[in-house]
Write a structure and sequence with these properties.
Elements lengths: L1 H6 L13 H13 L5 H7 L4 H20 L2
């Protein structure tokens, strides 16, 4: 759980904590489209289709919900 929190902090990519699925999807897409620059994020998601990004966003949103409920 802590690893996932560290992975998705803004040092590596966008801060995704406390965001819902749509916000997470949009935050990831801006790196895929090049609107925001981050070599690591671009390499991680450059070839992911939207349905995979949506699935990832859903999983992260679920993790966020679990974290909030367990505080």
């Amino acid at each position: 759980l802590e690893f996932r929190r560290v992975l998705f902090r803004s040092v590596i990519g966008p801060s995704l904590l406390d965001k819902n699925e749509d916000e997470i999807f949009k935050a990831i897409k801006v790196y895929q489209t090049g609107e925001k620059k981050n070599v690591l994020m671009k390499d991680l998601i450059s070839k992911m289709p939207d349905d995979e990004i949506r699935s990832l966003a859903s999983e992260i949103a679920l993790l966020n919900k679990e974290v909030r409920e367990n505080k």
